[in-house]
Amino acid sequence: MSYLDQITSPTLLINEQITRANIKRMAQKATKNGKKLIPHWKTAQSHEIGNWAKEYGIKEVTASSIKLAEYLCGQGWENIHIAFPFNILEIPRLNYLAANNSLSIQLVNPVTTQKLVEGLTNSVGFFIEIDAGYGRTGVHISDFGTMEEIMRVASSSDKLKFKGFYLHPGHTYYTPDKAGIYEQSRQALHMLKIKYQSEFPELVTRVGDTPGCAVTEDFGDIDELGPGNFVLFDLMQAELGSCTKEDISVCLAVPVVDINTERKEILVHGGGVHLAKDVLMDAEGNKNFGEVVFLNEKGWTIPSERSYVKSISQEHGLIKASDSLLDSAKVGDLLGILPVHSCMTADCMGEYLSLDGKKIDHCEGAAWE
């Protein structure tokens, strides 16, 4: 039976071949540059896709939350890093997981560090997160006082091991000068390595964002790369130049429920609870919540004429249709939608359907509940 015959409602499809190619390409890039690839699994959030990654030499992984870390425990990862400023309310949960798994966390202030000193019962590594211009979180690159206070407090415990510095230059998503931002990031981490390496000879530096890691060829003396979105890619990454639309390995299959030829619009079952509400703006100022692809037995094809989701509500998606799509579409057909932000779409859907008709796990899926 075709995978298409299984679909009656919004379903997230994954092309294993494209996904593997994305992982392989980034793994080869890391190896070529002498770096360790430790992908951020907030995008894929899957045991099965993790098994694919291991086939390309990936041995460690990054989680966005302790919930995701728990989901990944017991899957053979050498270390799971939780790349979010640690929440002290989750110390008991961290202790439970760290009893049988190698974990590391991110620290951004001495208060959290002290609470961990007082509450940890099992060994945990930690990175100090650095802010070198993004402005979301982290210790400012020039705030050596806070960095050293975190190190000093942590040193009073035999349960906290300093691993190094983590930097997420997320502003690569908002500027065309990715090379300039990465040069700043390289310089920032290089400066910290020079400053603290004599005291901590095993210190490592890690940088993680897909746009920068995708386009950068010279990472300097950065030790580890931690991008995440590259596993699946999406329209946002294509617009940023991280990939082509052909590299996007997921699409949302949606049923056509109505067609308005006068307005050149197609109503589909697929809205904010499926795609999320991330949006792109085109040159004419039109909102784009996802672009239409044509589904077939082997996956999907990208049409020459663009049709896109112009608006969404909770369950509804309204497509601005090209003439060719209007001529071919019928009520009851299935269309594919390339997501603007694959991380959020996958999170909304909670599982994948492969092109050979197999369900692939996701942390947010029913099986995990």
Automatic annotation (TrEMBL):
GO molecular function annotation: D-serine ammonia-lyase activity
Domain D-serine dehydratase-like: 249-356
UniProt keywords, alphabetically: Lyase
Highest taxon listed in the record's lineage: Bacteria
One Pfam family named in its UniProt record: Ala_racemase_N
Membrane-spanning parts: none
Protease as UniProt keyword: no
GO BP annotations listed: D-serine catabolic process
Family: Belongs to the DSD1 family.
The protein's name: D-serine deaminase, pyridoxal phosphate-dependent
Organism of origin: Algoriphagus boritolerans DSM 17298 = JCM 18970
Lineage: Bacteria, Pseudomonadati, Bacteroidota, Cytophagia, Cytophagales
